[in-house]
Amino acid sequence: MKKIHKIIFSMVFLLVFSCEDYIDIVPDNVATFDLVFNNRTNAKKFFFTLYGYLPGFSDYNDNVALVGGDEIWTHQTWTAMSFSQGEQSKASPLFDHWGDGNRITPHIALRDCNIFLNRINDVPDMTQEEKDRWIAEAKFLKAYFHFHLLRMYGPIPIIDENIEVSEDIISVRIGRDTVDEVVDYVVELLDESIAGLPSQIFLEGDELGRATQPIAAMLKAKVLALSASPQFNGNSVYSTWTDEEGTPYINQTYDENKWQLAADACKEAIDYAHAGGHYLYTFNSSYDLSDETIYKMNLRGAITDRWNDEIIWGQAYNPTTSNIQNVAFPRIDPAWVGQTAGQVNSYYSAPLHIAEQFYSINGVPIDEDTSYDYAGRYNLTTGDVENQFYVQQGYETIGLHLNREPRFYASLAADGVLSYDVNNEADDTSLFVVNAKNGGVSGYINERQYNQTGYWPKKLVHYKSFIANDSYTAENYSWPVYRLADLYLLYAECLNEAQGPSTEVYQYIDQVRERSGLEGVVSSWASYSTNPSKPTTKDGLRDIIHDERLIELAFEGHRFWDLRRWYKAHEYLNSTPMNGWDYSQATTERFYNIENYGYTEFSIRDYFWPISEADILANPNLDQAFGW
């Protein structure tokens, strides 16, 4: 039986901030909730502030998953850079979403969700059908905020109801619930939510971004996959982290059936997604383009083509994607070389090990490919006819940049690599080339506007965004919080863990690979890998699926959380060198020297955020995070 906890609230609420589209603010003159819920207009404004508490998914200053791991490095002094370098603190936690009074604190969001659910039926001038939909959306948001806290803090108190201000102080001092209890509660909320949500959005201009059945079903799949994963499923490291009765917060008995529950939830979500009109994105052009360019744009467009069919849940409000495109954008047009003010900053840098994680052109890891010169990958070479749509012919670069899978070229801009953009979209035989060396069109300009490593996450930049003289214009898009390829790969992962390799597991991996021009996993490994039987075992296929997720979803904020739930973060992120090329050098020979720009740091205690010492002192029943 789950515990039911409450959270205290005041009758005068202080929130709110304005957002685009349907998200509005609570009017300043509304002082009590009686006035808020006495008519539809006021209730609607309060309702949409619940969406306003969602994180800024595309904001690299707000979403720790974008920069707080090992996918991105920069010379900027962002808080996430401190986080990735192991500078977390219980005295003043970084990205503190617990109780710092910040407007995005999920506990405030949960308070308002509870207020809304308790009072929405008081509104007189609404149909019951509309109330039921809003109730379903509020339950979805309530589930999401619990999930958000669960990923950060592990076992958390379930916030099911609010506490009246008249209750005693002991009632306020609530403790953590076990992970299993939180998961059960969130799944229950989502099941209730799914029943009342629409299958898709029909009034797109007004409602895109609001919850639907596919969104809620995918969140349910995410929650159950997290519960089944090694971080939470029988992890003996946390055996001593218990409540006052000695019950471990994280179940110490591995339960394989959790993977089957997660797989079933994934399949349910896929069915809802297909019924709602969601399919893998493919790039359409009126121009005669090569297959190579289409393969690149299939992935890039799945991210940046606004509200395309692959996006299950898109961010519909501020922040726009203009800022993240600004820092991820390599300068490529020679007409504007050397310009600074008003142009892009370009300091969102991907480290060398991320560039190396992408497969060879044969669809297997470069250190497994029997035909790939892995030992000579840093040797100087020139672009050739076989790579003519990926790398400039005759351009002196390195072997690492040739003979790679299309997702490498879709995801990254690199020295010598061609970039498809609005200036030359009609002819992919005459594309701009990235010149990352000092003095090159894409290279160092000044001490602020430069890329350290020589790699830009190009997949985040819409191909119609462009630079002109002292100006930059972004083609904004809906940030893909959830997209179908993520769900396909999650289903393949959960099904493999539950049942082992099967035709169905291969099917969902291969659909994602085929979209980028790759053969199926069984065929690719059998033909090109030094370990041809790898996809035929559960352990081998697990490694392949993990790699597929890290490649397909790179730079979208998934790697940060996947490494945690797989309980691999302390292996990948502990003293990891953030290497790249020497951006200060103008010649090819000197540019291609590996430079170290720092290290990520991660220990076992970093799997969960610490709760600030001030909050622990205020609530003695609240246990500190493990290791803190």
Would you mind describing this structure in some detail?
The protein is mostly helical and 628 residues long. Helices cover 37% and strands 8% of the residues. The chain starts with a strand and ends in a 10-residue tail after the last helix. Pfam families: SusD-like_3 (PF14322), SusD_RagB (PF07980). It is found in: Cell outer membrane. InterPro entries: SusD-like_N, SusD_RagB_dom, TPR-like_helical_dom_sf.
Give a topology summary.
Layout: E1 5-8, H1 33-36, H2 40-52, H3 64-67, H4 79-84, H5 106-119, H6 128-153, E2 159-163, H7 169-172, H8 179-196, H9 204-207, H10 213-228, H11 257-275, H12 291-304, E3 311-315, H13 322-328, H14 352-357, E4 380-382, E5 396-398, H15 406-411, E6 413-414, E7 418-419, E8 432-433, E9 455-456, E10 466-468, E11 471-473, E12 479-483, H16 484-499, H17 503-515, H18 521-528, H19 538-552, H20 559-565, H21 569-572, E13 576-580, H22 588-591, E14 595-600, H23 613-618
Parallel strand pairs: 1-2
Antiparallel strand pairs: 3-12, 4-5, 6-9, 7-8, 10-11, 13-14
Helix pairs in contact: 2-5, 5-6, 6-8, 6-10, 8-10, 10-11, 11-16, 16-17, 16-19
